[in-house]
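#data-curation
PF: Archiving a pair of folding outputs for the training set. Convention for this channel: one message per protein, sequence first, structure tokens after, nothing in between. First:
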Amino acid sequence: MKKLYVVAINSISHSYQGVQMGHVVGKLAAKNPDVDWDQQTFVYLSSGEIKMHKVIDKLHSKGIKFDRFYEPDIGNKLTAIACITDQSDVFKSFDLF
């Protein structure tokens, strides 16, 4: 079963992480309206920036579609990523949000 995985950087406040997650989920949904997902399972995670970049490389190598959000209010910094996948191993070392 595919799940929606969302990761936000942990160097910002919890409330700001939540906002960033909302941005990236909206972006992912808008770009992929026909994605195969039952909209039941959301997994919200947090991560350091280096680890987030490593998971982006892993998603690329596995051919998993994802989206990312860069926050204009903090210098267009990468703040969140989101993908829909059944490959949970990609995120096994991340902290729950």
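PF: Second:
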Amino acid sequence: MKINSCSLGLILGLALAPLALAAPAQRGPAAGGPNSTAGNDCTPGSMACAAVCDASCPGVCATVTADTTPLALGTTAQAALLFQIDEERMARELYTAFGAKWGLQPYAQIPTAEARHEAVLRQLVSRAGIAAPTAATGRFDSEEVQKRYDALLALGLESADSALRASAFVEEQDIADLQALIATTDNLSLQQAATALKTASGHHLNAFVGVLAARGITYEPKVLNPDEFEAIVVSASRGMGRGRGRGPGRA
């Protein structure tokens, strides 16, 4: 979901203000079995398995699949893919910083998952024969991602609750951007990978929302519409166990 950079500051301001000001309210837990794999293509060696990994495909997807088949992508899909790589790295760097600052459980594992997501996308870029974004810490090729990173990092370092709200916002935006990426192409490999990452982002969103709930705070969606948000969080919670988002978050 690309946003005109001229309006990004205003949009971020409007979106992030409620993150810092939302009043606490309790959110109830959701039931689900700890080993559920509903919605995930967990065929060993599949792109979805490599992207979602660990909890949903134990023992069969520790590394990204080594497929090197050339990938033909149009210019719009190429641009969206490069943007998404920046966004996945942004999430990893934000969560690493928030974890170091606040020591909350979701930040123990989710940054590793984000690194794996970035690896999946970089593999697709390599197969497409295009240059991947640079990977300098705190710097992003996309001006839009850079603005998001700067604003969200500052917010998340203010308090633990702000970090969790900022992280939930990141996952919401990631889901929306992955939906936009899927819409740019009819290439099956890219669609499958982006869909798997979207599923994983739903689990991450669920984890952050759940920890906020355990702290007495209701997170209200800022990017997704309320029905879509509830559908994603409820679906993700079925495979989490221990209530909504109480675990570290499935990768």
